[in-house]
């Protein structure tokens, strides 16, 4: 199953939404919609006061399933991926309660969109974060990377497709805690439980209030970026670059 939801024992008011799509959690179009639905449902449950976004397998998230796009001779999959990602990112951002992202291994592309919209990030020591979009014939999620690092670093990472470590993001203040991989789930659940110990009504008001004072409309900003992704596809540039995916020496 690509997306599942669970209620961990001993963590009252916490709901865990887990992505498990082997081999690397690069989600197909439907997977992004499923993730959006699961996060919305968890946040809408009056018994839930905090959501943990987690993943199984080799890493947290490797973005969009590039092979699905390559198999489509038209633009249906691209449009679906654009809309699905926008839905999933928006679901995390607009979740009625705080969202804690538990990041292990790689967090790339769409993964940045998810954690950039989360309320808090707990990461394992082996976690790396980046946007390889220019190497994949795409654009987007700079909106969310800009929420994790300063402006000039965001631009350099975007242009170079380089990654940064969890420790580096912790130094910038965007990752709350860095822990050994074996302790990631416990650390994320501990933070979620601390948040969930607050009054549920006040938490929901606080989430709405904090979103309301954000200086950037993240949903509109991301959709603006996606327009350039589609332009690159219409020009043929995206397909040319995307077809090199998996063929690097």
Low-pLDDT regions = none
Assembly category: single chain
Shape: globular
Number of helices: 11
Mean of all residue-level pLDDT scores: 94
Name the helix and strand elements from N-terminus to C-terminus, one letter apiece. Answer: EEHEHHEEHEEHHEHEHHHH
Terminal CA distance: 33 Å
Question: What radius of gyration results from the CA coordinates?
Answer: 17 Å
Order the strands across the largest sheet as they lie in space: 1-2-3-4-6-9
Taking the sheet with the most strands, its summary is: 6 strands, mixed
Helix proportion range? 40-55%
Question: Which secondary-structure class do the elements indicate?
Answer: alpha/beta
Total strand segments: 9
Strand content: 15-25%
Structure description:
The protein has 249 residues and is an alpha/beta fold. It has eleven helices and nine strands. It has helices at 29-44, 66-71, 76-94, 110-117, 142-145, 151-160, 166-172, 184-196, 200-212, 218-234, 237-242; strands spanning 3-6, 14-19, 50-55, 99-103, 106-108, 120-124, 128-130, 163-165, 177-179. Strands 1-2-3-4-6-9 form a six-stranded mixed sheet, with helices on both faces. Strands 5-7-8 form a three-stranded mixed sheet. Helix 1 links the parallel strand 2 (14-19) and strand 3 (50-55). Helix 3 (76-94) packs parallel to helix 4 and helix 3 (76-94) runs antiparallel to helix 10 (218-234). The mean pLDDT is 94. Keywords: Lipid metabolism, Lyase.
């Amino acid at each position: 199953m690509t997306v599942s939801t669970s209620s961990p024992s001993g963590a009252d008011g916490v709901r865990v939404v887990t992505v498990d799509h082997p081999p690397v959690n690069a989600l197909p179009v439907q997977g992004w919609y499923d993730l959006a639905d699961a996060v919305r449902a968890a946040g809408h449950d009056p018994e839930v006061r905090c959501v943990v976004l987690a993943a199984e397998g080799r890493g947290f998230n490797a973005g969009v399933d590039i092979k699905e796009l390559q198999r489509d001779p038209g633009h249906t999959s691209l449009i679906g991926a654009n809309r699905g990602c926008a839905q999933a990112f928006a679901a995390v951002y607009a979740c009625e309660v705080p969202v804690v992202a538990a990041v292990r291994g790689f967090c790339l592309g769409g993964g940045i969109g998810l954690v950039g919209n989360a309320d808090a990030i707990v990461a394992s020591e082996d976690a790396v974060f980046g946007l390889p979009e220019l190497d994949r014939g795409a654009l987007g999620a700079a909106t969310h990377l800009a929420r994790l690092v300063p402006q000039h670093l965001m631009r350099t990472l975007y242009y170079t497709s380089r990654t940064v470590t969890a420790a580096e993001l912790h130094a910038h203040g965007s990752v709350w805690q860095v822990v050994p991989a074996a302790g990631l789930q416990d650390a994320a659940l501990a933070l979620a439980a601390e948040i969930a110990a607050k009054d549920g009504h006040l938490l929901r008001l606080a989430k709405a209030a904090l979103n309301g004072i954000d200086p950037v409309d993240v949903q509109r900003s991301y959709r603006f970026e996606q327009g350039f992704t589609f332009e690159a596809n219409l020009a043929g540039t995206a397909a040319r670059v995307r077809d090199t995916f998996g063929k690097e020496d």
